[in-house]
Amino acid sequence: MKLNERSVAHYATCDSPADHAGFLRKRVERHHHHAHHHGTSYQRRWFVLKGNLLFYFEERESREPVGLVVLEGCTVELCEAAEEFAFAIRFDDAGARAYVLVADGQAAMEAWVKALSRASFDYMRLVVRELEKQLEEACKSLAACRKSPQRSSSSGRKRHLSNPALQPLQEKPSTLENGYSTWSSGGCVAGGATCTDHDGGQTKPPPLPPRRRSATGSATGSLAPGLPPAMLESPVSPETICFSKLHNWYGQEIAVLRREWQERQKRGHP
Fold first, then answer.
1. What is the pLDDT of residues 115-127, one digit of tens each?
2. DSSP state string for 119-139
3. For 205-215, what is each residue's pLDDT tens digit?
4. Which neighbouring-strand residues pair with 49?
5. DSSP string, 232-245
6. How far apart are the C-alpha atoms of 174 and 204, rounded to whole Å?
7. Helices (DSSP H) in the chain: which residue ranges?
8. What is the DSSP letter of 199?
9. Which of 63, 113, 188, 193 has its CA at 20 to 30 Å from residue 107's CA atom?
10. Positive or negative: CA dihedral 117, 122, 126, 131
């Protein structure tokens, strides 16, 4: 691979952010031809990782790098060495030079190994391939959901109506006992509140307040006079359960009954 030295040197020292940087000791092999043996020494260098290029400088303030390692076709692994916290960059080509580096501590070594292992384009291709696979699966799942919206909504409604606590309340009382409107035995009361029937020993919901009858009221009673026409029909439909509407609907009737009671108190007729 041919690299333009001037462009590479400029890239090493430009203001572009580095992926990782720090001091490492680089092992240097020294051969002695006359003594037929070689020695090992370590040089402390300032390393800067940008993309898949690993630069190293003599000092942190140096203007130009003294070396460059292209991190393609290589593996980063821990190695056994006389120095602690050592790791190596080994290339797949036979006879290629291996770079043995030593960090200052365990945390620094792990950070460098992770950063260097993720620097190559081969690693980025694997990441992009995995992300594309996840995106494809997500698109398929979204398309399947869009094809069957009615099915999902109907199943959601079935779950909604299967909950007894969410069933619509009975709109009208079915019987009258001692001037009080009560619910039939098959009705339900929100919250599960019940009272005991001393005659039959069975439990019934608590009685509602008495309804005032008008001149044209039927045997089952009617709403108190003076109520607005909007109150003649319950706002609660079999398909909609809205507590606020139900509360307001009953609250208007109670307000009318309370005003009538206050007027009777003022006239001296309890």
1. 999 999 888 899 9
2. -SHHHHHHHHHHHHHHHHHHH
3. 555 555 544 44
4. 20, 54
5. GS-S-BTTB--HHH
6. 13
7. 5-13, 106-117, 121-147, 149-162, 243-267
8. T
9. 63
10. positive
